[in-house]
Amino acid sequence: MSDDVVIVALPERLDSATSAEVEATVMAVLREGVAVVVDGANVIYMSAAGVRVLVDAYRKAAQQGARLVLCRFTGAAADCLAVSGFGVLLPVMASVDEAMLKLGIDPEARPRDRLHHRHNAS
Q: What predicted TM-score, i.e. pTM, was given to this entire model?
């Protein structure tokens, strides 16, 4: 199992205006063996276009042998995932540390012990 971890921080709005850029950012980091944490802490609004991006990214990750977990979605964004039914399909954790544990990575490991990237999709 690779310890290559990429954290993608989402913008405040994940909708038709931002979904293409967010999709490009997330898809660009997906490759075999990579663990991707999609951090929704900044998201205050998410539309169906945003949910579609997350579902497509999850499917592509599975096809490419990558692992993808969502974390820190709250409020209206969490409601959007729940109402769409994709909150059941997509693993959504409460914190980045929980997301890393879900991916089988020790969040306490020193950063120099693993390759750790942070991308902003904004």
A: 0.85
